[in-house]
What does this fold into?
Amino acid sequence: MNKKIALIMVIITSMALAQNGKQVFETYCWGCHHQSAVAFGPSFMQIASKRSAEEIQAMITDPESISKILGYKRNAMPAFRLTSQELEAITAYILSFKPKSDVIQTTEKKAK
Ligand code: HEC
It folds into this structure.
């Protein structure tokens, strides 16, 4: 019973996060990133399929150094100063575009 409630809480929280994340996306990212189509930057589907939450957040806050680590020769993305809530929300939103089956794997293998 308690486990069920806990699970429901987790689901509600992640839904709320994804909703806020959509707002952050529409406010800051939409001009250059789209959910599934490549725009100026890669699509969220592409990003979600190969990056961890840490990589995504690092890229948002410090693209100048992180874009090189991610393999880009030049950095065209500006840095964003988001609140930690916005950062969590946009990260959850981006990762929600990942195919469900390997969501857990990526979060776990991150500590490399
Ligand atoms: C002015 C255009 C622009 C805006 C606005 C922008 N980006 Fe980007 N983004 C890029 C480009 C271009 C790249 C490719 C790397 C580079 O050139 O720096 C990129 C790369 C990324 C990457 C890494 C891609 C990878 O290889 O995994 C992430 C994550 C990312 N952006 C997230 C965001 C988020 C989240 C926002 C909104 C808060 C945002 N971007 C806003 C242009 C933009």
About this structure: The two ends are 37 Å apart (CA to CA).
